[in-house]
Each structure stands twice: as C-alpha cells, then as structure tokens.
Amino acid sequence: MSSKTENSEPQINQLVIIGLGLIGSSLAIAAREQGLAKTVIGISRRTSTLELALELGVIDRACDSLEALASELDFGDLVVIGVPTLSVPSIIAVCHEFLSDRVTITDVASVKGSVVKALLDVYGKLPRQFVPGHPIAGSEKSGVEAANSQLFQDHRVILTPHNTADCEHLSLVSALWSDVGAVVSTMSVDEHDAILAATSHLPHFLAYSLVDTLASVGDNREIFRYAAGGFRDFTRIAASDPVMWRDIALANRESILSILDQVMDNFQALRGAIDDGDQDYLMDVFTRARDARNHFGKLLENKALQGPMTEKAINYRISPGGNARGDVRVPGDKSMSHRSIMLGSLAQGMTEVTGFLEGEDSMATLQAFRDMGVVIEGPERGRVVIHGVGLHGLKAPAKALYMGNSGTSIRLLSGLLAGQSFDTELTGDISLSGRPMGRVADPLRSMGANIETSKNGTPPLKIRGGQRLSPINYLMPMASAQVKSCVLLAGLYAEGDTSVTEPAPTRDHTERMLRGFGYTVNVGQRTASLTGGGDLLGTRIDVPADISSAAFFMVAAAITPGSDINLQHVGINPTRVGVINILRQMGTQISLSNEREVGGEPVADIRVEYGKLKGIDIPPDQVPLAIDEFPVLFIAAACAKGTTTLTGAEELRVKESDRIQSMADGLVTLGIDARSTVDGIVIVGGELRGGNVLSHHDHRIAMAFAIAGLRAKDEIIVQGCNNVATSFPNFIESAAAIGLNIQVEAHND
Ligand code: S3P
Fold first, then answer.
1. Which residues are catalytic, by number?
2. Cβ pair 20, 49 in contact under 8 A
C-alpha cells in the first residue's frame, strides 16, 4: 500500500513531525518532495530551527508545540515523534492529554522497550493508535541542516506493533516509510532491542571508547596524525550526537549491559592470549571473525555466494620415477564432511567438526547452507562450528544454490530441500550439469515432492517448497549411497516410516551420522529405515582421513619397488574398504594398526609396501566398496603382471567423467592394452611410457595419472587438473612429501 491514493491524493492529511533532527527533518523533506501529505508541519522548541526548516523547504508549516496544534488533528493525520529517546515520554504525555485517539502516532526512537514502558505509564495500556518504529538510518551529521530526502532509501525500518494496534494506523505508518524508499519489517520489542544493542549500540560505544582512550593519551596529536585507515573506518561513528547516544545507553540498559559483558569477557581473553603469546587462540578468534564478517558482508549484499570457477587451467607435468616413502595424513573424508554440514545445520544447537575436508566439493555444501541462513564458522585447519537451526529453520536462499562439481551435494541436498517450505534451484559446473538426476527426482516425486530437472534429466534442479511428503519403501535400482541418502533425508520430513533397500551394500555414513546426531535409524541386511518428524541434536564429529584420497598413495606404494608408506588415521568403514581388499588380492602388502572407533566410524593407520602385483578378476561384490578408487586401481592393474578384468561397474560411466572411457583412453596413450566394455574394463599389465593425457576435468582421473608417473618411462602431462581441489586440495604437497615430482603449470584455457 502507498500513502498516496490511486488518483494521487495523499493519504496522509497532515504529517506532523515533532523534533527536526536528522531523522525528523529527512522524513519531512522526503515526504514533501514526494507529496506524501497535504501539509508537512514541523514542531520544534527552537524558533531558529523552525525558521531554517522553512527556509530550506523541509516543512510547509512551523509550530512551536503539539498542544497548540492538537485540536486541528484528526483521523488521517500522522504524528511522528522524532525527539531523542529520553524525551519521548514527555511527548507521549502531551499526546495523551491533547490528541484525539483517531490520530495515528509513531516514533523513531532507537530503543523500543522504553517507549512501550512510557506508553503503559501514561495511557495505562498500549493505545491502538500508536505504532512504535525505528528507521535504521542515520549519519554522524545532525540537525535540520543535514536533512536528506534519500536518507531512508533501501534502509530498513523496523516497526514493533503490539497485538492491539489498529491496522489502519499500522498501514498508514508502514506506507509512509515504504514511500520514502525504506524496507519495512516488523518484530517484537524485545527482539528489536536485543538485536540493536548488538549491531548498533555496542559499535557506537566501542568507537566512543576507543577515541576517548586515545584522546587522553599523552601527546594525542601525534597519535591522531598517524591514525588513518582502520582507525578512521572504525571510529567514524564516534562523531555522532552525544545526547542521542547517552539516551540510548540509558534506555536500553539491560540489553546493552548483556552484550557489553560478553565483549569484555572476549577482550579479557584476547588480552590474556596476547600476554601469553597464544598464537592458536589469536588465529582462532581472528579467523572466525573474518569468516563471519565475509559471511555477513555477502548476506548484506544479498548475494548467493559462490560463482563458477573461472581461473586458469592447470596441467600436471610428472617427471618419471620417484619414491613412495613416508608418513602422510591425507585430508578429511569427503562423504562425511558433506554430511557433517548438512546434519549439523539441521540439528538443534551447535556442532563442532574437526578434520573437515576444505575441498571445493564440501565447501559447496557449506556455502549452500550459509546461503540458507545457517551461521557456520570456519573452516580453520579442519575445524568448523555449525550453529544448527533445526529441521525447519533453513531460510530461502537469495539465488540458485551453486553445487560446483559435487554430485554428493546436489543429490543429498535435493532430498532435504524437497521437504522445505521454500523453493530452491540447484545448479553446477559443466560436469555436474551432465550427470543423471532422475535417480533422485524419481523417488522424491513418489514421495510427493515437486522437482524438475532439465529435459535430459540433468541439473538444474528446481524444487518447489511447501509440499507434504509421504514416506516410501524404496527398492533402489542401482547401488548408490547418494540416492539412498537423498531418500532418507527426505524421509526426515515425511510423516511415517521411510525405507530404502539397496541391491548391494553402499557407504553408510548417512545412517551412522544420523545416529550420532541422536536420530534412530534401523538398519537391516540391505534396508535402512527411519521415521520422519524427529529432531537432530548438535554433536561433535571427528572426520577421519579419506580412504579415497589415501588410495592414491596406497597404489603409489603398491607399484613402486622399495616403497613403504604409512597413512594415518584413515576411515576404514567396511563399506569403503574395497581398495584394500582388491590391492591385497593383487599382491600388495597392507597392514592396519592402531585400529579404533572415532564417532561411530572405524579408523586405522594403513601401512602399504611394494609387492609384485598380479592381474585379477575384480570380485563384483567389491565394486560398490571401491567405487571411487577404480581410476587409481586401473593404474595398479597397468603395472601388474597379467590381465585385470572389471565387470558390473557401469556406474563408473556417470561419475565426474565417464571413468571407464577416460581411463581406457589415457592408458592406451601411455602404451597399455586397455579395452573398455559396457560395464567395465580389461587391462593387460605392461610398460607405461610417457604421454599427454586428459583428465576430463575429473579429479580422480587427474590424480590417478599423476601416480602413474612413478612407473612411467617418460614424462606424463595430465591436462585440466583444476578439479583436484574438489577432493584433495593439497595433493601436490602430499605427493611431493612421499617422493613424487609433479610440476603444476597454469594455462589460459
Ligand atoms: C558418495 C557416494 C558415491 C561416491 C561419491 C560419494 C557419497 O556415489 O561415488 O563420490 O558421499 O554418498 P554413488 O552413491 O552415486 O555411487
């Protein structure tokens, strides 16, 4: 609604503004410029202010008191109390005594609790005509000279109407603010005062305090002469009107004291850390704050946060030969990292994750939840703190959620998002945009979800919110942990029991982690089920090293005579150990030590030594258990004596690239007899020569061919290795640490 009616008649008859400070006079001049009232009347006790206001064209008419004007005001007139916070009660007393209850009244004080208290004191109840308001706009300038008709443009105005406020009065006030360009929202008085204490009042007091401290230091002229940059930015608001801020400090006493206490505790701890030289503490605080600031900055710019990758193409040039010796801890498990963010965000309370994979895939998941309003601190050296919002606490993102290269993000998220009240769109990079999504869209539709894919069944996914989901018993046609997880996560939002039965065991991190968050999941031979409508409770998660990343160095050791590699703290979930079983069967020496359970997942150190490799027929039951490790296992097969045959692995054709074809082509380039079949590959071991191979923008293909360099006769160049950062951001450094020699070259694409 607008405060001008359709035939352009102003809806406000007389707009009366009491107090011609920055806010009052800016509102007056904006209303005049836009013809929002028939007459704009300014009230001030100072004649000079009124004269100036008339001269500057801020008001149409001047008056020295409300008493003098009150008898002229009636329905359709709007009185705005624009005086400093502590003077509001005396004006409220005048309103009560002299104004008709048909006149609309609002105020602009920065504290609302004190205004409501004054209303109760004076009226004995909350008057229906009074709509408390607060424009979040201002400047360090004050007075009628600073009147600025654009001051409220795109700024927020918070109204805190009480239950008994009359909607005619509310809509008149709301329309006035919208018409001067503000974005109007409403909230409770308590919420307003607590939020403003933290976001506006506290920064002003910090700025005043800092400037005051420096001003009282010995030769402060020198200090101020050199104080530029940070000092100037930080203290700009210390030039604000002292009366106004004195009033705010006293009027919002409780909320301000509470946040000041928290900051003082933080300051004490910071002081202690500086005194003790505690670098870790300082890094933790500064990094957390920086990440939070970036996050808020992006929220303020209203951006969905991550764009597609546009940097230069990276190639690997791998010198032939090298060692495979040493102790390595590879980055955190990708599957668990994704799930920790998803479940942590949907839990109640805080979740602390350590060992989180800071790769692009898991960061895409993290970013998506930030885009949906979840506050997530970090990652900082693998530590992430998620402030869970509960199963129903996500907010609509401003833009499409960008999932980059990550199949796990898009498929698991599609299940969660099908149960939300808002619409979402999920997009990805070129590789992800070609991957099949019907496998998740189909079961979700049968649960009642409204989800659209492209004509080919690929991303983008458009998911309509507000659907009621029904539980299903899903017989999954392919062995896919992503599909299983998607359906189970949607099942959290369905009424009743959802179950998924898989044709072969797939990774069960979702089931384990749900239990870690206190959610009951029943797991049978091949079926997992849960009942919707429960709660997840925040927890701690220690993510072990990713066996899929460790696999590259396991194969490095397996193919290099004289090797001996120890991989620390690797997740050895029974649904992921196909690579160990297959390499052992081919002749590699692998021993596990220090076996333990961490947060519901088995973990061990894995020692791998060279042993003569022989070709094998890979047992079909190992396929889902080694699904991500085949690219590098094919390198082991190329270095083995005899033939290795893989069947039943058609899923490899729909990974980040067609991994059967990508590997067969690259191996042939390197002189190996490799033949792809519909659902697998046949590789005859031989001598690897050098050559130029393509990664097809697939991280695991790139890393597999990098490992091949250990046994190649000549240099191998792998083209298009940027996506290694999706799962193994420090691959080059770790590879160098065990003795590989890889040069990274950047090219314009
Ligand atoms: C994953 C499941 C597997 C795997 C992928 C991660 C997961 O995919 O290839 O890298 O985290 O659930 P499928 O479930 O499609 O086989």
1. 628
2. yes
Choosing from 408, 440, 484, 703 the residue with most ligand 1 atoms within 8 A of its CB, the one to mutate for a pocket test is: 408
| Ligand 1 contact via 588 beta carbon (within 6 Å) | no
Residue in the structure block whose two tokens are 């359970």? 597
192 ligand 1 Cβ < 6 A:
no
Instruction: Give residue 347 CA to ligand 1 midpoint distance, Å.
Output: 23
Q: Where are the domains of the chain?
A: 12-187, 202-277, 313-329+544-748, 335-541
Please work out whether the CB of residue 482 comes within 6 Å of at least one atom of ligand 1.
yes
Q: How far apart are CA 607 and CA 580, in angstroms?
A: 11
The per-residue pLDDT for 687 is 97
Q: Which CATH superfamily includes the segment(s) 313-329+544-748? A: Enolpyruvate transferase domain (3.65.10.10)
State if pTM tops 0.70. Answer: no
Residues 6 or more apart whose Cβ sits within 8 Å of residue 731: 549, 552, 703, 706, 724
Superfamily the domain 335-541 falls into: Enolpyruvate transferase domain (3.65.10.10)
Distance 180 CA to ligand 1 centre (A): 52
Helix (H) or strand (E) holding 430: none
Q: In this structure, what are the phi and psi dihedrals at residue 603, rounded to the nearest 5 degrees?
A: -140, 150
Of all protein residues, whose CA lies closest to atom 4 belonging to ligand 1?
Answer: 628
CATH 3.40.50.720 for domain 12-187, yes or no, is: yes
| Region of poorest pLDDT, from 29-38, 230-239, 390-399, 694-703 | 230-239
